[in-house]
Design brief:
- The protein has 99 residues and is α+β, with helices and mostly antiparallel strands.
- The protein folds into two domains: 41 residues, Rubrerythrin, domain 2 (Single Sheet), CATH 2.20.28; 33 residues, no CATH class.
- 25% of the residues lie in helices and 15% in strands.
- A three-stranded antiparallel sheet has the order 2-1-3, with no helix packed on it.
- Strand 1 and strand 2 form a beta hairpin.
- Helix 2 runs antiparallel to helix 3.
- The longest helix is centred in the last third of the chain and has 11 residues.
- It starts with a strand and ends in an 8-residue tail after the last helix.
Length: 99
């Protein structure tokens, strides 16, 4: 479950709470745990929006080496002019395919 940050607009108390996505607004409907006043809002302080990603992930790493084997098999049945593009896809250079 994700951790969300909340801030009280009355006393500026910052706190975090683990909530399900469906219940992420529940603390906003309750009083502040410190001053007991209503006025809790979700806060982005200390949060970095984005997704956690493995930037080293390659097709071979994801498939346990099967991607390279598949590309080699496909390459055998293709005209040589496409081999460079197949190699580029296997190495995941990030460049687009060109004819």
């Amino acid at each position: 479950m994700p951790t969300y940050n909340y801030e009280c607009t009355k006393c500026n108390n910052l706190f975090e709470q683990v909530e399900t996505i469906a219940n992420r607004n529940a603390p906003c409907e309750k009083p502040c745990p410190k001053c007991k006043e209503m006025g809790v809002e979700k806060s982005w302080i200390g949060q970095t929006p984005g997704l956690g990603t493995d930037t080293t992930l390659t097709p071979d790493k994801k498939t346990g080496g099967q991607w390279g084997e598949l590309m080699s098999k496909m390459k055998r049945g293709m005209p040589k002019r496409y081999h460079k593009n197949m190699d580029r896809a296997t190495n995941k250079t990030g460049s687009r395919w060109k004819n």
